[in-house]
Amino acid sequence: MAMNRSTLQSLNPKNPTSSLLVLHFIRNFSLWSMKKDSDLESSLSRNRRWIVNNQIKNIILRCPNQVASVRFLQKKFKSLDLQGKALNWLKKYPCCFDVYLDNDEYYFKLTKRMMSLVEEEESIKDLQESVLMERLAKLLMMSCNHRLNVMKFNELKRNFGFPDDYLIRILPKYPEMFRIVNYSGKRSTMDIELVSWNPSLAVSVLENVAKEQQVEPGFTCSLPSNWEKSWDRFNEFNRIPYISPYVGGRDFVEGSKEMEKWTVGLLHELLSLTLWKKASILKLGHFRREFNLPEKLNVFLLRHPGIFYVSNKYQIYTVVLREGYNGSELIHKDPLVVVKEKFGELMQEGLHEYNRRRHALNLEKKKKKGMIMMRSGKKEQRSIAEASEEDDQLGKQRNLYNPEERKRFYEILFDGDAP
User: Fold this and answer.
1) Helices 38-61 & 112-127, crossing angle to 10 degrees?
2) Of the candidates 111, 148, 237, 336, which lies 20 to 30 Å from 99 by C-alpha distance?
3) Nearest Cα to 174, choosing from 133, 146, 209, 205?
4) What strands, in cross-sheet order, belong to the sheet with 308-311?
5) Annotated region Disordered: where (predicted)?
């Protein structure tokens, strides 16, 4: 991130106060200085359209008869971080959304192929209830008071694969594991609390891998071999004995090596439990008290580039677990990820169809324009007698070779589609 030149010029290095300002700017602008990984950036950009269309899908499913007006979606566009016309966006994905006109108003619904994927996703969620139960238990066991605020957790529930109705779909089936507590009676203070500790679940991903390989648990570094300084720092850090994220971090001294080791292990485990091995840094920061995370989480993550990758794709700061990816592809895919990728493939198919149609229409327009120019050329080859009779008419046509006149002509003829 580059500093504004005028800002730099306004700072005088000879002035002590100005020097402090320079240091302040340098520190702030270096917070996000991480060398870009083209593969991981590619995986994030590939997910962007899927995320938006998945949100639109959820909007439709919550509507009566699973039909919504395009006007209603247009009102939601800002919250989806989109610009332009909703109708244009929907038409880009004809395999996903069925758009139709009724009483002079556009409506849309999911196509049959999309509905079949929705049904497949729902059946997987039913089959994965026990997996989600264990995932929720692990999150609660890592939290300081073994409790998580419902409203906060809802911000990250989809990262972990939880359905919107998890409170009534999953929790009531496991009363021996969870309960809802709300001492104040306010909606904002509703918490999910762990009822009983399960030792078999208090084992991290790294510990399970180490057990299988019969080695001591440790982190892996996913950096090029020529990053010598980063490798040296990583090896020094990795020599500190691994500390499980399930032991709790309150007993460690703030700023100590043990505290740092525990925090890295906690973040590693949190990201390992997500579907896509990534999460918004801003949303993770909302759980600073619950998971005893560093106040400057962004700075902390950048100290460990071999384990975490920090991106600012689409002006959204995201942390990715490097070892979860091979190039731009996710290594271990949750069944929910597999069905969501089918959704992505359907989107791409629809987008390809839309682009093909648009290309055909553009070719047709160009052909029509060519025919008009040919006709004007034939008129110029008419006989002298015909030319004398239509002298004024031809005079106007010759004016088309004037750029301004030509532009105005096409604006009238093709509704502004001037060449």
Assistant:
1) 100
2) 336
3) 133
4) 278-280, 318-321, 308-311
5) 377-402
Mean pLDDT of 325-351: 86
pLDDT at 41: 81
Q: What is the residue extent of each domain of the chain?
A: 47-110+336-367, 128-200, 203-332
**Rounded Cα–Cα distance for residues 243 and 263 (Å):** 9
Predicted TM-score of the model (pTM): 0.73
> Residue 84, Cα to own-chain centre: how many angstroms?
19
Q: Is the predicted pLDDT of residue 393 greater than 80, yes or no?
A: no
Chain segment 173-216, per-residue pLDDT in tens: 999 999 999 888 788 889 999 999 999 999 999 999 999 998 98
Strand partners of residue 308: 321
> What b/e sequence results for 24-60 when a residue is b if at least 16 CB atoms lie within 10 Å of its CB, and e otherwise?
eeeeeeeebeeeebeebbebbeebebeebbbebbeeb
Q: Return the closest-CA partner of residue 96 out of 282, 388, 342, 327.
A: 342
Pairing of strands 329-330, 325-326: antiparallel
In this structure, are residues 132 and 146 in contact, taking their beta carbons and an 8 Å threshold? no
pLDDT, residue 263, reads 93
The CATH label, of 1.25.40, 3.30.70, 1.10.10, 1.20.1250, for the domain at 47-110+336-367 is 1.10.10
CA 418 to CA 410: how far, in whole Å? 5
Cα 271–Cα 28–Cα 223 angle in degrees, nearest 5: 45
CB 137 within 8 A of CB 198: yes
Averaged confidence pLDDT in the chain: 79
DSSP 140-176: HHHSTTSEEEHHHHHTTTTTTT--TTHHHHTGGG-TT
Q: Which range (145-154, 227-236, 282-291) has the least confidence?
A: 227-236
